[in-house]
Amino acid sequence: MELEPGLLADFQNELKHRNFAQLLVRIFDLVHLAVQSPELEMRYNHLPDLDAVVQQVGREVMRDLNLESRPTSETVNVFIASEVDEVGGHTRNIVDLIRNSRRRSLVILTDLFDRYAEGTHQLGKVAHWLGAAVCVLPKMSLIDKTRNLMRILNSLDMAAVGILAHHEDVVAYAACNDLLDVPQVFIHHADHNPTLGATISHYTHVDMFPGNLAMCNDAGYVSPDYMPVLAARRFIDCRAGLPLNTGTVGRFSKFTVDGPLNYADIVVGVLNATGAKHVHIGTIPDDYLRYLEGRLIAYGIDPARFVYLGNVDDIQSALVEQQVQAYISSAPVGGGKSYVEVLALGMPVLLYCGANSDKRIIAHYSDVSSYGDHPRWSSIEELILNLNRLDVEQECLRSRHIYVERFSESDFHRVMRQYF
């Protein structure tokens, strides 16, 4: 996505007059707005003009700090993120990197939205789960966060920096400029949205999904490497004739409570079609659980056939223990990490592909296998039709092939060892 000439000239003028604080705020606001714009297509993922401006701000601020030479014993991997949560693929990807690093790790959180500082996010359980030292930048202006991050990085015996920051995190991308003399790896980990960082040439650019890899290759700003999302291979025994227990995974923001994709209607339709049980992993609000129970009773369905697990530490183990035989992707918002973990089970996938999910489909799933694609659905009626004609054994083979072809655990470890 290119900036309008007038806006780019305005930003250049801000640079000339060294209005760095104001410039970082304006760029943060602009990218944050772009991320919220569903009409932006996948090809607008890259922001080369903004990347160039943010990098120039970073260089100027770093020169102003006149930092002394940093240690060079190269004993620590640093991973920079904006924030982490107890659930979600973003955090689980960071955990995978830490647990498979050859060195000690430090996670630095820029707290871009001040959620830790203001108490809306809590670190205790998450910090323990990460299994690494964690540093959170205090609440201050974006320019002061940038300076603080630069000073921290300059004091560390770093071997490499892994950047998994949010799209609009000007702090991370300004601090990680080409005056920082350490290998810097931009990990394009699971998103279809416009993002800072994806066109910065001195970063080693690593994509974690086939769709993103193809898009970044085609764009030509960088030469991306491919390190697939990690999921341990644990192929299950899929046989026709077993009760077709189904499952969904995802925080409730990935589903909808009204309209043609009302999650309660999905559950009712699926349970009517299978006669088995449906398992949900991820939080659902208490009031919606009560509403869902009422809908099941109204349709003469035993509410016990809907198994609500909430958040779990291990999605694969939970699905296996519940004897889930088919995975129904979240709708209307797709989930990338959970999808790969299901593939690593060799489990049939019924993939939502509607108007609001097309970009995510491209980023996560599109053209993933020469073996063919999963059954797709864009309405509850189409989902039920696919369930009724599902060839369980064939779809198990399809998921296994896609996993081996594009998301192999060994491929993750091979690329991981090159950088961390």
Segments where pLDDT lies below 50 for 5+ residues? none
Q: What is the makeup of the main sheet?
A: 7 strands, parallel
Strand content: 5-15%
Strands ordered across the widest β-sheet: 3-2-1-4-5-6-7
Secondary structure layout:
Blueprint lengths: L4 H12 L3 H16 L12 H18 L10 E6 L7 H11 L4 E6 L14 H7 L2 E4 L5 H13 L3 E6 L6 H6 L8 E5 L15 E4 L2 H10 L5 E2 L19 E4 L13 H12 L3 E4 L4 H13 L7 E5 L4 H7 L4 E3 L7 H8 L5 E4 L5 H7 L11 E2 L2 H9 L3 H15 L2 H11 L1
Parallel strand pairs: 1-2, 1-4, 2-3, 4-5, 5-6, 6-7, 8-9, 8-11, 9-10, 11-12, 12-13
Helix pairs in contact: 1-3, 2-3, 3-6, 8-13, 9-10, 9-14
Question: Would you write up a description of this structure?
Answer:
The chain has 420 residues and is α/β, with parallel strands linked by helices. The protein has two domains: 16-227, Rossmann fold, CATH 3.40.50; 246-406, Glycogen Phosphorylase B (Rossmann fold, 3-Layer(aba) Sandwich), CATH 3.40.50.2000. Helices cover 42% and strands 13% of the residues. It has 16 helices and 13 strands. It has helices at residues 5-16, 20-35, 48-65, 89-99, 124-130, 142-154, 170-175, 210-219, 263-274, 286-298, 315-321, 336-343, 358-364, 380-388, 392-406, 409-419, and strands spanning 76-81, 104-109, 133-136, 158-163, 184-188, 204-207, 225-226, 246-249, 278-281, 306-310, 326-328, 349-352, 376-377. Strand 11, helix 12 (336-343) and strand 12 (349-352) form a beta-alpha-beta unit. The longest helix is centred in the N-terminal third of the chain and has 18 residues, at 48-65. The model has no long low-confidence stretch (mean pLDDT 90).
